[in-house]
Amino acid sequence: MSENPRHTYEYQVFRERMRVRLPNVCHVCGEAIDLGLSGNDPRGWTLDHLKPWATHPELFYDPANCKSAHRQCNLYRGASGSTPQQKPKRKRTCPDCGGELKINVSRHWGPCPS
């Protein structure tokens, strides 16, 4: 495969079939994937090849080689194809009150609730 096969119509059709077929749970972190988010969103759905297509082009269209993943989790794995060990989730806390924050938020919106 000389050009990037992800840009072909055939792959777009394959990816959409897999999106419908696969569970909406990220195989890397185990969390649910919101299908309403864009594939460009860090928490959006992407098709992850367990054995990277760069090193295993023969498995590119093999459904057994594909899993659902968040975009950020898929990028974290990269072409190495290795799944990181599950780490305990670190809770982010507000520097003002110590309350738990949602992902990618450094402070509460508006005044601190405490």
From TrEMBL:
Domain called HNH nuclease: residue spans: 14-75
Species name: Nocardia flavorosea
Single GO MF annotation: endonuclease activity
Name of one Pfam family that matches: HNH
Coiled coil feature spans: none
Protein name as annotated: HNH nuclease domain-containing protein
Superkingdom as given in the UniProt entry: Bacteria
InterPro entries to which the protein is assigned, alphabetical: HNH, HNH_nuc
